[in-house]
Design brief:
alpha+beta, Fertility Inhibition Protein O, Chain: A, Domain 1, two-stranded antiparallel sheet, 6 helices, 5 strands
Length: 173
């Protein structure tokens, strides 16, 4: 920074002498100049110079609330794969009739995925199995007890009493 003072610009208004607009010595018709201010009374201004009041605009119609544009439902790719895998598994009567599935049924499902060249991950299979095994019809059949089944319809073990009890708790909720 430099030590030189800055040049400033100052604007000074011209001093206006007090004048009388009319010959009347009335206080309302005088233009008074006090220092830098000039005061003009309303009576001194000619009528055509006054601002005209604006015409009132017609009242606006209230805006109708717009209906929101219906959004396309977003479907996750995993949900699409779940639906495709469910459609492929519906070819098996055990799956369609919601019979109790054998333990380790995931291996058989992954074998089906490989055979039919389906696109499904471990999460997709888990999501589908959770959805399938928590339906009311499936839980009722597990609650009744009996045999567990593979996808081909062959039996594979019995339903344990603890599993029947758990199915009853799921049905109660």
């Amino acid at each position: 920074m430099t030590d030189q003072p800055r040049k400033t610009l100052s604007i000074k208004p011209k001093a206006l002498p007090s004048t009388e607009q009319t010959s009347k010595p009335d206080q309302a018709t005088k233009t008074v100049s006090r220092g830098n201010k000039r005061i003009i009374k309303r009576e001194q201004v000619q009528p055509y110079a006054l601002a005209k009041p604006k015409a009132k605009a017609p009242p606006k119609k209230p805006n109708k609330p717009r209906k929101p544009v219906p959004k396309k439902p977003l479907i996750a790719p995993s949900d699409v794969r779940v639906d495709n895998l469910n459609a492929a598994l519906n070819a098996f009567a055990v799956w369609r009739e919601r019979q109790p599935l054998a333990r380790g049924i995931e291996r058989q499902i992954f074998q089906l995925i490989a055979d039919q060249h389906l696109s499904a991950s471990k999460r997709v299979v888990q999501k589908l199995l959770f959805k399938h095994t928590h339906q009311r019809d499936y839980l009722l059949k597990v609650g009744q007890g009996g045999q567990r089944f593979n996808l081909d319809g062959s039996t594979d073990g019995m339903i344990l009493p603890e599993e029947r009890e758990l199915a009853g708790r799921w049905l109660a909720t």
